[in-house]
Specification:
By secondary structure, this protein is an alpha/beta fold. The chain is built from ten helices and eight strands. The chain has an eight-stranded parallel beta barrel, surrounded by six helices.
Amino acid sequence: MLNPKIENLIKKKSKSKIVCLTAYSKNIAKNIDPYTDLILVGDSLGSVLYEFNTTRLVTLDMMINHSKSVKQGITKSLMVVDMPYQTYRNKSEALKNAKKIAKDTKCDAVKLEGGTKIIPIIKHLIQNNINVMGHIGILPQSVKGKFKVKGKNLREQNQLMKDAKALEQAGVFSIVLEGIKSAVAKKITSNIEIPTIGIGASNDCDGQVLVTDDLLGLTNSNIKFVKKYADLGKSIQSAVKSFRKEVINKKFPSKKYSY
């Protein structure tokens, strides 16, 4: 029996767009939860929070600790946690680590990167009652060097479609399409029965995901698909400057803020 939140997400396929964002802490999760369908605790936290130049350095403990915090801020959204690099190299390792993530974080599902190559692992997780979200296209855990858009040639296009179909048949409830040519993302979306979530893959996908810190202007991301909806960096600096000024001028704390 599927998780009710997952069932609702699947029902949105081709009917209404799915809104997804990342969160790495309770405070962010609490503020985005009213407006999102899915909150992803992504291993993107490696670069966003720790200045890692690859997601490969993110550990299972990091993912679990941040996810515990995020869970406290969620009341309605589906919560998905990325399984980090080298935590699902074989079926037994994957199940052990997925069970730990699920038990420790109370998340709704985990996300794994890859297509046909990891189908036996995904099937094993699903057979053992672990809900799985797929991820194809650019696979940050597998990339060395610069990310390259996928689906530019026929070979890649065929493989992406093969991957998407295989993931669907294996039982994943949704697939992230990252950095895929628009026409290819559209074709995949229209040829599978489960929702696709795009990131740099056109608005033909069933939903979209962005890194919340990028959206809020808390990072210096210059990635093509990132749109900055706010500049919280400036707002934070302005608030801190005001605090600094009042402390130096002995205006804070006033009687109102003193015992």
